[in-house]
Amino acid sequence: MEMNPENPTIPTKWARRFFTVWTGQAFSLFGSALVQFTLIWYLTKTTGSATVLATATLLGLLPNIFFSPIAGIWIDRWNRRLVMIFSDSLIAFATLVLIILFATGWIQVWHVYVILLIRGIGGAFHYPSLQASTSLMVPRDQLPRIAGMNHTLAGINNIVAPPLGALLLGLLPMQKVLLIDIGTAALAVGILLFTSIPQPAQHLDESGVVRKTTFWQDLREGFTYIVHWPGLMAIILMAVSINFLLAPMNSFMPLMVTRIFSGGALQLGWSDSLFGMGVIIGGIILTTWGGFKKRIVTTLVGIIGIGVAVIIAGSAPANLYPMFLAGFFILGFTEVITNGPLIAILQSNVDPEKQGRVMTLMTSGASAMSPISLLVAAPIADRLGIRVWYIGGGILCVGLAAVAFLIKPLMEIEKNHKTPVPSGETVAIIQEIDKS
């Protein structure tokens, strides 16, 4: 097999294998987006409560907080292809349970809570496993473009899934709409069953034997890796702060549509679709442009844009729904500009055998503040109005990004990365043990 001279562990003809896996995951993500829209709309119409929506969001986040650190360790230890197969299958099983509950008429709000929790557990294993595998399948110089493509895909899902979900809910019972997710998950799993995915390098001791570590050693190693990277620590602290400010905005968006603009499923779908259009355009621009030479600058500019977009959406008068949509279009665009370069920084600089732990620990830290924010925001939104969290959060987001430009470790995140190999160890080549 001919190998890429700049990336000796990646074949020159890498695209066929990667995009085969990517295509299956694209369909699976579409099915998940459809389920997400239909469940949120069901909760909105059934209860109309900000507290219920906040609880649903909280249960979806809990796995990222409590399971992500554990998932990251196993992602780095296990066969990553099998991890993705398992997590995709778990998510599909949860949807199947939902189908049965809706078909029998036994569905209750607490059932939706439990299913969201199970799907969140599957996602805690799936997404970081896919991201950690990407750096082993794609040349380093192509990672920013792949990040742009992934965001473009997310944008397409945001455009297509909500209006299609609204249309299907008007034509079919809920259980038949949910069947789509079963089909897309089956396609993704089927592709993974017959496609090989490389495994990360392994550390060897002085005698050439693979170094054996315990679960707790791996967990401590992941924490140590992050603590000794000042720029990454700064990124995590910033992500924690932004999640605290903006998590309620996502949960309360259906209530903004129904209460402020007197909209229905179609209007909710349009807000998601405009967000998706912004993501697509942002993804296309990031794919072709690549961002500023210093990737962290692109990310910080994107965060400022996110704050401005949230302020615009939260300030829209009741008779200016297009202004609300414009805010979500800008939000989608700037979210890509924020996250795309950041993902490329991590995939390019984090050691492949530690990417599972680093990415899940970062996700866990960023998600940890969201439940606190939601618990604080829900009763306040019910009493003072939903706009408070849009406008106030947006202003603080802009200020946080502006201050970040003055933080030296953050601005030099790709230069202050130190990853010494423990004494007496060597590193084996990346293993192709996952042959189809």
Determine the oligomeric state from the structure. Answer: single chain
Side-by-side strand order of the widest sheet = 1-2
Question: Can you tell me the CATH superfamily?
Answer: MFS general substrate transporter like domains
> Which percent band covers the strand fraction?
under 5%
Summarize the model shown:
The protein is mostly helical and 436 residues long. It has helices spanning 15-47, 50-66, 68-77, 80-104, 109-137, 143-171, 174-193, 215-227, 230-260, 265-289, 295-315, 321-349, 355-384, 387-404, 408-411; strands spanning 3-4, 7-11, 203-204, 426-427. The protein has 15 helices and 4 strands.
Summarize the structure in words.
This protein has 436 residues and is an all-alpha fold. It has one domain (8-427): MFS general substrate transporter like domains (Growth Hormone, Chain: A), CATH 1.20.1250.20. It is built from 15 helices and four strands. Strands 1-2 form a two-stranded antiparallel sheet. It has a two-stranded antiparallel ribbon with strand order 3-4. Helix 2 crosses helix 5. It is globular. The two termini are 15 Å apart.
Sum up the structure in keywords:
two-stranded antiparallel ribbon; Growth Hormone, Chain: A; globular; disordered C terminus; single chain; 436 residues; mainly alpha; two-stranded antiparallel sheet
